[in-house]
Amino acid sequence: MDIVQVTSLIIGLLILSSVIFFIITGRLKERYSLLWLISALFICLLSISRKLLEYISYKLGIYYPPSLLFLAGVLFLLAINISFSVTISRLSSKVDTLAQEIALLKENRDSP
Amino acid sequence: MRFLIIIPAFNESENLPKVAEDLKEFIKDAVVINDGSSDNTPQAAGSLGLKVLNHPYNIGVGGAVQTGLKFALLKNYSLAIQFDGDGQHRADQIKNIIEPVLAGEADLVIGSRLLAGGYEFPFLRKIGSRWFSLLLYIFGGVRLTDPTSGFRCYGRRAIEFFSRYYPEDYPEVESIIYASKAGLKIKEVPALMRQRVSGKSSIGLFQSIYYMLKVSLGVMLSSLTRIGR
Description:
The complex is a heterodimer of chains A (about 110) and B (about 230). Chain A has helices at about 5-25, 30-50, 50-60, 65-110. Chain A is mainly α and about 110 residues long. Chain A is elongated, with a radius of gyration of 21 Å. Chain A starts with a helix and ends with a helix. In chain A, about 10% of the residues are buried. The model of chain A has no long low-confidence stretch (mean pLDDT about 90). Chain B has helices spanning about 15-20, 40-45, 60-75, 95-100, 115, 125-140, 155-160, 170-180, 205-220, and strands at about 5-10, 30-35, 50-55, 80, 110, 150-155, 185-190. Chain B has a 7-stranded mixed β-sheet, with helices on both faces. The longest helix of chain B has 18 residues, at about 125-140. In chain B, about 50% of the residues are buried. The mean pLDDT of chain B is about 90. The interface of A and B includes residues 93, 108 and 111 of A.
C-alpha cells in the first residue's frame, strides 16, 4: 500500500466511524446519515484497491489516479450539501406552518 | 354579504390608524396578520378595534396572507380581501374587486392601479412590472397589467387552494402562476390606489435586484412544478 492509500483509508475510516458513532449516540438520524455512509464507504473502497482506482481513472481519462479520490470527495460533498438545502427548505416550510398554526390557535384561545 | 379583510402587517403601527379609519365600516371583519413586527403593531391594531393574529416570528408577507386565508377558511368566509397595512389601498375600491367573484366570473381578482389610470410608477418600477407581465403571459398565459398589486379578492376556491399552497416571500407574481396552474379563474379590474403615504418603499437597491431575480426564477420554475398533486 502507498502512503496516499493509507492516508485516504484512514480518513475514510475516520468519517465512517464518526458517522456511526453519532448514529449510535442518537445525535445523527439515519435518514441524514445515508449519504455520509455511502461517501465514506466509497472512499475506503477506492483506497483499498489500487486496481479499482486505476481502472476507474483510466475509464474516466484521469492520468493521475489518486486525483479520483479528490473528485469523489468533492462530488460527495456536493451531493451532501444539496441534500442539506433540500432538508432546510422542507424544515423552513414546516417552521412557517407552525408559526401560522400558533397564530390561529392563540386567536382561537383568546376569542373563541 | 360577508367577507374577511386580511391586512398583512410588518411594523405598520404608524400606518394602521389611517387604514382602520378607511376600513371602519368593515372593521369587525378585518384581521391584521402581524408578521413578527418589532414595533407595537399588535397593540396599535388592537386599540383600533382590529382583530390581530400574531406570528411568533417573521415568516414573510406570503406566509402572512396565507395565515389570513387559513383564518378565512376556519371562520367559513367565502370571500377574502387582501388589503395592505401601509395605507396604499382604498376601502372604497373593495366593491370593484368583489364584483367579479360574486358574479361567478373569477376566483381571484386583482385590483390594477394601471387600469384605473392616474397612477405613475417610478421608471425602474415600471420596467419591473412590465417584465413580470411579460413573464406571466409567457409562462402562465395570463394577461395582467399590474401583477405586483397586493389588492386582491379571493373567492372560496381560491381561499381553499391558497391556504394549502402559497409562495412565502414576494408572493404576488408567483401566486398568479399557482392560481393559473390550479385552474382558478383570474381577473383584473381597475382599482384606485394612493401613492405611498409614510415611510419609504420596503425595498432598497440590493433587495430590488434579489427581488427581480427571485420572482423571475420563481415564475419560470413554478410554471414547471406540479402544484397540488
